[in-house]
Amino acid sequence: MSLETYADAADLYLTRGQDVNPRRPLFTGDVFADVPVPGIQTGGTALIMAHPCTLRGRQAQLKKHVLVAAVRDHAEVGQGAWTKGYYDMMPLPHLIGTRFYVGRFDEMGRALTADLLKTQRLACLSVPGINLLQQRLIWHLTRFEVETYRLHEAFAHTFEEADLLEEWNDVLCDGGFAEAEATILFEEFIRADLGNRRTLQEGLRDPQRRSSVRSAVRAEARRAAAQRWTSMADTEGGEQDRAR
């Protein structure tokens, strides 16, 4: 048995520090700065372990709790060592500066989503980083080895959806929408019945359809933002006329 590892610390991260987009939806592998976890820590860094589909309920509302793992300082461990040991940890090298951290699978618990939202998101793991996290967690819990490419096959549509929601939020929020409102509209749009019980969200499961889904979502985001800008301009114009 030999788990996979990373070639470069940067490969594990999508964004870190100031590069993290606050409008990106909460996702597996996000790292937050100061999170109380009952029975685990009164505060400290935490790593989201939950699948993104478990983070939201009806109308895209975030659920009250989210499964996280404590993140701890750790002596530096070489890349090769992760293939044959440290099975209860996720390597997080250079999470902050050049320091070495790990996510601890033996220190997991439920955090309040509200506590995550009010603190700093330090990093978002990349696609390879999340696949590695999932592989190590599955091995830790079951001693069953799953190649990361197979995890990617099962998980790829959720990466696409998160990226699209991040783009959608940027466009709509810049166009005058509140983020919560924009997220609900996104869920309604991608889950709308296109006929024969087909939806854009289901289309993301098919690699052949993802390009057309991306185009449809981006076009709708631009349309909704333009419509809101026009509505806001008309409202401001009417108020100015009444003021005269």
Structure overview:
The protein folds into 2 domains: 9-146, Roll (SH3 type barrels), CATH 2.30.30; 152-243, no CATH class. The protein contains 6 helices and 7 strands, in the order E-E-E-E-E-E-H-E-H-H-H-H-H. It has helices at 113-117, 127-142, 148-174, 179-191, 200-203, 210-243; strands spanning 13-16, 30-32, 46-48, 65-73, 89-93, 100-112, 121-125. It has a 7-stranded antiparallel β-sheet with strand order 1-7-2-3-4-6-5. Helix 2 crosses helix 3 (148-174) and helix 3 packs across helix 4. The longest helix is centred in the last third of the chain and has 34 residues, at 210-243. The mean pLDDT is 94.
In brief:
The chain has 244 residues and is an alpha+beta fold. It has helices spanning 113-117, 127-142, 148-174, 179-191, 200-203, 210-243; strands at 13-16, 30-32, 46-48, 65-73, 89-93, 100-112, 121-125. A seven-stranded antiparallel β-sheet has the order 1-7-2-3-4-6-5.
List the helices and strands and how they pair.
Blueprint: E1 13-16, E2 30-32, E3 46-48, E4 65-73, E5 89-93, E6 100-112, H1 113-117, E7 121-125, H2 127-142, H3 148-174, H4 179-191, H5 200-203, H6 210-243
Key terms:
globular, alpha+beta, 6 helices, seven-stranded antiparallel beta sheet, 244 residues, SH3 type barrels, 17% strand, 2 domains
In the CATH scheme, the class of the largest domain would be: Mainly Beta
How many distinct folded domains? 2
What's the SSE pattern? EEEEEEHEHHHHH
Through-space gap between termini: 78 Å
Beta percentage is 15-25%
Query: What Rg is obtained from the alpha carbons, in whole angstroms?
Result: 20 Å
Largest beta sheet: strand ordering = 1-7-2-3-4-6-5
The CATH architecture designation of the largest domain is: Roll
Output the number of helix runs: 6
Inertia-based shape: globular
Query: Largest sheet, described in full?
Result: 7 strands, antiparallel
DSSP summary, beta strand count: 7
Poorly predicted sequence stretches spanning 5 or more consecutive residues: none
Structural class: alpha+beta
Share of residues in helices: 40-55%
CATH topology of the largest domain: SH3 type barrels
Mean pLDDT: 94
